[in-house]
Every structure is written in C-alpha cells, then in structure tokens.
UniProtKB/TrEMBL annotation:
Coiled coil: none annotated. It comes from the Eukaryota. It comes from Rhynchospora pubera. One of its GO terms (cellular component) is vacuolar membrane. It holds the Pfam family VIT1. The chain crosses the membrane at residues 161-180, 192-210, 222-241. It is a multi-pass membrane protein. This is Vacuolar iron transporter. It catalyses: Fe(2+)(in) = Fe(2+)(out). GO terms for biological process: intracellular manganese ion homeostasis. Belongs to the CCC1 family. Vacuolar Fe(2+) uptake transporter. The lineage of its organism: Eukaryota, Viridiplantae, Streptophyta, Embryophyta, Tracheophyta. One of its GO terms (molecular function) is metal ion binding.
Length: 247
C-alpha cells in the first residue's frame, strides 16, 4: 500500500521510515579532522626527516627532531581544530541570540521571511500559510527554522571542539610516526631515508585512496594527488638541505 507522506498518520509515517533506510555518510566532521591530521602528519615529518637526512644528520638526531616536531605539530594542529570548532559554536550562539531578538521584536517581518523562504521551494500562499502560522505558535521551532533555512547554520555539538582537537592531534601523531619509524631501526640515516620514503609513499597512496573513497571523489586520483604532494614536499626539503650543505 502506497501512502502520501502528507496524508499518512504518525504511525504510518514511522512504518514507512522504518522500511526505508537511507545510506548517507553522516560523519563528515570527524572524517575532515582525520584527513587533516593524517595528511599533515604524513607529510611534514616526512619532509623534515628527508631534509635532515640530506644534511647527513645521524638517525638518532633525525628521530629526536622528528618526534619533537610530531609533538609540537599535534599540539598546534589540535589547538587549531579546537579554536576553529569553538569559533563556530560562538558564531552560532551569537546569531541565535540575534535571531531570537528579531522574532520577539519584529515577528511580522520574521514571519514574512518564512513565507519568502518557503516560496523559493515552489510553495504558494495557501500552502505555506499554515506552516507560517504553526511556527508562530512554537517559538523554539520558529527559531530553529530560521537558523537553518535563513542563515544556513546547523547547531554544533557542544563537545565538538574538544573531540575535534583530540581527533586531529591523534591522527597527526599516527601519521607522523610512519615516516619516522625506519629511523628507530636503521642506524644510518641515509639508508633509513630510503626505507622511510618507501613506507611513507605506500601510506600516502593508501590514505589518499581511502580519503577519496570516503569523500566521494575518485579514489585512484585522490591517491595519486596525495602521494604527489607528500613526495614533492620531501624532495624540496631534501634539495634545500643539500643546497645549504654545499654553501
């Protein structure tokens, strides 16, 4: 039996929703934080290690400098993620307060804005009129409607700032340990560098492929782009170290 959503009872609507499960990816913010942390973690320590190896630094020095960079980078990236998420939450709170004041002080103007928004979706006065009336009777729903459809703002998770900081920092550490791990086992930095290059390029390929798959882009193209950026950064650092050494 096929029912129109507008005519179905609450129980029937719930039945329809239970029968149809949409497969949408809902963890975009977490994935963005992981991508940010891992991509920088793989690239920056990789370039640093390659540069120091080019300057003929011993493995112990490369490892020490690399671990210090990973620690500082994780703190810096995590703090940046925290401040970005906190700024987003603060912006939402300011706009919500301003919108709430407008609903109280100029309700007719705000109601006209609801009508204008709904008319953009093809609804006529007889169709959006009851919606406007219903929202005016429910101030909280009215406020949430205006925040989402007028300002285009989604209510942020109050725990978002802390989780963003932790996710980025941990992802950065995981990514940063990949290019540094060969220096823990190979005493000669020059030999460790070639192992690091191979391991890191494979990690960049894998990470780029997964990133492309999860973000809806072409996985193979994403893998090539990610690997190329990491290789370019390390090659530049190595070349600069060699050039400085010859001066």
């Amino acid at each position: 039996m096929v029912l129109e959503a507008g005519k179905a009872t609450g129980e029937q609507r719930q039945l329809l929703l239970n029968e149809h499960k949409e497969k949408h990816f809902m963890a975009g913010e977490v994935v963005r934080d992981v991508i940010m942390g891992v991509s920088d973690g793989l690239t920056v320590p990789f370039a640093l290690a390659a540069g120091l190896s080019g300057a003929r630094a011993p493995s112990s020095l490369v490892l020490t400098a690399g671990l210090a960079e990973v620690a500082a980078g994780a703190i810096s990236m995590g703090l940046g993620g925290y401040l970005a998420a906190k700024s987003e939450a603060d912006h939402y709170a300011r706009e919500m307060k301003r919108e709430q004041e407008e609903i109280i002080n100029v309700p007719d103007t705000e109601a006209a804005e609801i009508a204008e928004i709904l008319s953009e979706y093809g609804l006529g006065p007889t169709e959006y009129g009851p919606v406007v009336s219903a929202l005016r009777k429910n101030p909280q729903a009215w406020l949430e409607f205006m925040m989402k459809f007028e300002l285009g703002l989604e209510k942020p998770d109050p725990r978002r700032a802390l989780w963003s900081a932790l996710t980025i920092a941990v992802a950065y550490i995981i990514g940063g340990m990949v290019p540094l791990s060969p220096y823990m086992f190979v005493r000669e930095a020059h030999k460790a560098m070639f192992t690091s290059i191979g391991v890191t390029l494979l990690a960049l390929l894998f990470f780029g492929f997964v990133k492309g798959h999860m973000t809806g882009n072409r996985p193979f193209l994403s893998a090539v782009q990610t690997t190329f950026i990491g290789a370019l950064a390390s090659a530049a650092a190595y070349a600069i170290a060699k050039a400085v050494q010859t001066v």
